[in-house]
Amino acid sequence: MGLKTKFVLSASVLLLCFSIASTLINIRSQQRIARERLVGKAVAMTSLLAESASDPLTLLYVEDLRLLLSDVLAAEEVVYAFVFDEEGRILTDGTRRVRSRFRALEDDVSRNAVAASELLVQQRSGLLDVTEPIFLGSKRLGGVRIGFSLEKLEGEAAAIRDRNLGLGAGFVLVGVCLAMAMVVRVTRPLGRLVEFTRAVSRGELDRRVRVDTRDELALLANSFNSMTESLRTSQETLQAAHDELEERVAERTDDLLRANAALERRIVETRELETQLRESQKMEAVGRLAAGVAHDFNNLLTAILGYSNLLLADLAPDDPRREEIEEIKVAGERAASLTEQLLTFGRKQTVHEEVLDLNAMLGGMGSLIRRLVGEDVDLVIELEPKLGPVEVDAGQIQQVILNLTINARDAMPDGGTLTLRTSNLEVREGGAAGELALAPGSWVVLSVRDTGIGMDAETRSHIFEPFFTTKEWSAGTGLGLSTVYGILQQSRGCIAVESEPGRGSEFRAYLPSVESTVPVAPEPETVLPPLQGSETVLIAEDESSVRRLASRTLQRLGYRVLVARSGIEALELERKHDGPIHLLVSDVVMPGMSGPELVGRLTRLRPGLKTLLISGYAKGAKLDPHCGDAFLRKPFTPQDLGGAVRELLDAT
Questions:
Q1: pLDDT value, residue 525
Q2: Are the C-beta atoms of residues 328 and 304 closer than 8 Å to each other?
Q3: Which of 3, 129, 412, 423 is 20 to 30 A removed from 201 (C-alpha atoms)?
Q4: How many beta carbons lie within 10 A of that of residue 316, not counting itself?
Q5: Residue 292 burial by CB count (10 A; 0-12/13-18/19+): exposed, middle or buried?
Q6: What does the alpha-carbon distance between residue 70 and residue 59 come to, in Å, rounded to a whole number?
């Protein structure tokens, strides 16, 4: 056998071995690349799903989990996907292939997937199973699991194997046929092919085989170049698909975050509205209760003040009993003032502003304030001698003084010093007092200072809010300072506070000073004026004490009185009475028939009948302003009633 033949045979054998080895290497390399590509895609999709499912899994939003799974199942390779909790219970799942295979995999969730504390990749039965746990901090919430079909990968592997085997066989055939020219023309290209194959096995898909000939080796080289070009194109396509999937997942995540933020804002707004509604309902309920209590008290005070005035009218000026009756009258007048405050709080009372001297008011309240603060508190009252007058509602300002005094007393449980001080303040343009920006002009300042426990900044920021209190619920309602704030605002004034823990508090109320002078209060009358008459008056009043007082007062003045306990009884008296009825005096609120309704019916029966309505509410609170000829508010004195009756009867 010649050297040429040996060389040819040797070259053929070597070529055959090389071709087989290169084919196998290329097949394994391409199969490994395909499998790594699928595994990488599976791991990426599983991680994205786990990250997206973290918030819905924490909040147990099953519907959001289903939406996430529907996006995952859109991928062609996905066979199944589901989310499970920390105990292995499947919260939601989705499948697109054979159900029996999925059921077979469910049995090992608790053994493998649930116990996994990191990414778990398994291959079984033609499927690639990827599981990733979900953590919240260090706490494990559960996990996600996705199954990918390996059918496409197996098909690609078979195609690669067949293609490479065909190429290898052709390469061997060409090599054998051209073995004679191998020494000169084949050795160098084969070396290039070997180098190219190694480069491809390393993943260098941009490499190309340089071909100097036009024979079969050139065709083989071009095939390798085409193969690497196809691999590179496939890799770019896969990367583009991966990038698109990531973009879609990111968009969906942004949409979920925006929706969650909008939902949180809506929840916060709803809670704030609910809180405001509850506070409004509380204030309305307290106002209705205060107005109702004040109305009932006005009936009682009408009797107290009325009979006090009747007794004073019957007693001689030097009678020793006058002093006790005067005290009863003064106490009744103070109680009437308090009921006016209750009606104001319940928005059933109008504000009666008048020019007042704050010093005189404090002087008149001195004994009351001393009783309020107790013996363990030293009371100091410092009054500005030339204090400017203010135009306010006297009852409301008394309530301000009492509320601030009680608040200061409660701040000194172990005793201390309470100082009430009045002063004038002139504010020029741009001037300010403490934290308040006051308008230029003259102001009157009422200061209430205690040496109590004081307040921190957080407490000071809330003290004027309704229902805010630092006391026990049984000791305070949280309405005192909020009422003070509202009264001062209504009086065109304001209030400021300075306080530090352990150093006491000072409240300063600012009221605008006016140019008017304080009117001199007239001496109270103790006898009935000459208001007698002889006309017939029909009284309709359900409160017995008020009814008896009105009847006795008018009878003493000479009137003929018809008394009814209700509107229905008043109609019956009118029907039975043959003579004229000159005036109707009726309560506004009565059982069975209201005063305005009684007025309407009697005026139709007796045209020209004069009507006087009385009530513990302010005029306009529950009364049509066009109903009745006049209105008299409770509590009233016999002089008030006699004057109102005589004025109506004398009117043309």
A1: 46
A2: yes
A3: 129
A4: 8
A5: middle
A6: 19
Beta strands, E only, 334-480: 353-356, 377-382, 390-393, 416-427, 441-450
- Nearest CA to 12 out of 166, 173, 217 is that of 173
For residue 353, which of 153, 213, 493, 470 has the smallest C-alpha distance?
Answer: 493
**Ordered DSSP codes for 119-178:** -EEEEETTEEEEEEEEEETTEEEEEEEEEEE-HHHHHHHHHHHHHHHHHHHHHHHHHHHT
Low-confidence ranges of the chain (pLDDT < 50): 2-4, 98-100, 102, 109-110, 347-348, 434-435, 473-475, 523-529, 619-623, 625
Residue ranges of the alpha helices (H) in 438-566?
457-460, 480-490, 544-556
| Res 622: pLDDT | 44
Both tokens of 37, joined, read 């590509």
Measured in whole angstroms, the distance separating CA 84 from the mean position of its chain's CA atoms is: 34
Asked if 157 and 34 count as a contact pair (C-beta separation under 8 A), the reply is: yes
Length of the chain: 652
Where are the extended beta strands (E) located within 193-337? Answer: none
| Distance between CA atoms of residues 379 and 382, nearest Å | 10
Contact 299, 546 (CB under 8 A): yes
Residues 6+ apart with CB under 8 A from 56: 62, 64, 65, 68
Tokens read off for 423: 């002063």
DSSP 320: T
Cβ atoms of 634 and 298 closer than 8 Å: yes
Q: Dihedrals φ, ψ of 449, to 5°?
A: -120, 140
Distance of CA 230 to the CA centre of its chain: 61
* 128-176 pLDDT, tens digit each: 888 888 887 777 778 888 888 777 767 777 777 777 777 777 766 776 6
Contact 68, 52 (CB under 8 A): yes
pLDDT digits (tens, 9 = 90+) for 622-649: 445 456 788 888 888 888 888 899 989 8
In this predicted structure, what is the pLDDT of residue 204?
Answer: 75
Calpha distance 388→395 (Å, rounded): 19
C-alpha atoms less than 13 angstroms from C-alpha of 331 in its C-beta half-sphere: 10
Radius of gyration of the chain (CA): 50
Distance, in Å, from the CA atom of 411 to the CA atom of 503, rounded to the nearest integer, reads 11
- Which residue's entry shows tokens 């559960």? 142
The pLDDT of residue 219: 77
Residues sharing a CB contact under 8 Å with residue 155, sequence separation 6 or more, in sequence order: none
Cβ of 369: how many Cβ atoms within 10 Å? 18
Give, to the nearest 10 degrees, the angle between helix 322-345 and helix 394-410.
Answer: 90
User: What is the structure's pLDDT at 184?
Assistant: 52
| pTM, entire model | 0.38
Number of Cβ within a 10 Å radius of residue 543: 21
In what helix (H) or strand (E) does residue 456 lie, and over which residues does it extend?
none
Burial class of residue 55, CB neighbours in 10 A (0-12, 13-18, 19+): middle
- Find out whether the peptide bond into 607 is cis, omega within 30 degrees of 0: no
CA distance 572 to 497: 62
CB 571 within 8 A of CB 584: no
Long-range own/partner contacts, residues 366-374 (CB < 8 A, 24 or more apart) = 368/402, 369/401, 369/402, 369/405, 369/420, 372/402, 372/405, 372/406, 372/409, 373/405, 373/408, 373/409, 373/418, 374/409
